[in-house]
Amino acid sequence: MKRKHQALTAALAVCFALAAAQAEAKRVGASSRSSSSSSAASKPKADADEAKRDVDINVVPSIRYSAAGAAAGAVAGSAAAKAVAADAAKSQAGEADAAEKAAIAKRDELETKARAEEVARMAEESLKIAESKFKAEQAAKEAEERRRQDAIEAKRRADEERREELKRQAVAREKSCVIKPTMTDAEIDHCKQVWSYPRPQL
């Protein structure tokens, strides 16, 4: 768009320069005609040459300068367009790089979060396993303690029953021995045997 605008400016400058040349030529021609009304027949060639020189001196350089300016403007516009395009390319590259870095950072954040969640899940599972194991060990210890207490209680009851039985037997033996003023040898031997048993510890 800038290049078209510069070309249009150059064309307008050329048109203006040509118009100025034509006006100058008419002005010179009119001046020549008015000044040579008395000697028109003797100086037509000299006036034409002078008009041509005026055009060459005044108009042609203007056209050349306008064309050179238009060309310089076109070159400058082209360089500016290239600079703008380069800046746009750099900006797009910077935006793409920033977007890529943001995507990488987001991916790293998600991976870190996933790893943290996985570690937390494994820690929770390990804690549950440890709690289950502890409860199982506690239950086993409690069961073992109950068995031990039951065994102690059973032994105590058995010992108590045995002592009671020994006591009953001792009482029965003692009752079987009746001390009398007159006793037979058999009765005396029986009483000796009864009282030879040790008495049970109560």
Please give a structural write-up.
It is a single chain. The protein is built from three helices and no strands. Helix 1 (2-35) runs antiparallel to helix 2 (44-176) and helix 2 (44-176) packs antiparallel against helix 3 (185-196). The model is unreliable at 32-44 (pLDDT under 50). The radius of gyration is 68 Å and the shape is rod-shaped. Among the domains are: 2-97; 160-196, no CATH class. It has helices at 2-35, 44-176, 185-196. The chain is an all-alpha fold and 202 residues long.
Q: Helices, strands, pairings?
A:
Layout: H1 2-35, H2 44-176, H3 185-196
Helix pairs in contact: 1-2, 2-3
Mean pLDDT, to the nearest integer, reads 75
What is the terminal separation in angstroms? 127 Å
Total number of strands:
0
- As a percent range, the share of strand residues is under 5%
Total helices: the number is 3
Q: List low-confidence stretches.
A: 32-44
Q: What sequence of helices (H) and strands (E) makes up the elements?
A: HHH
Rounded to the nearest angstrom, the radius of gyration is: 68 Å
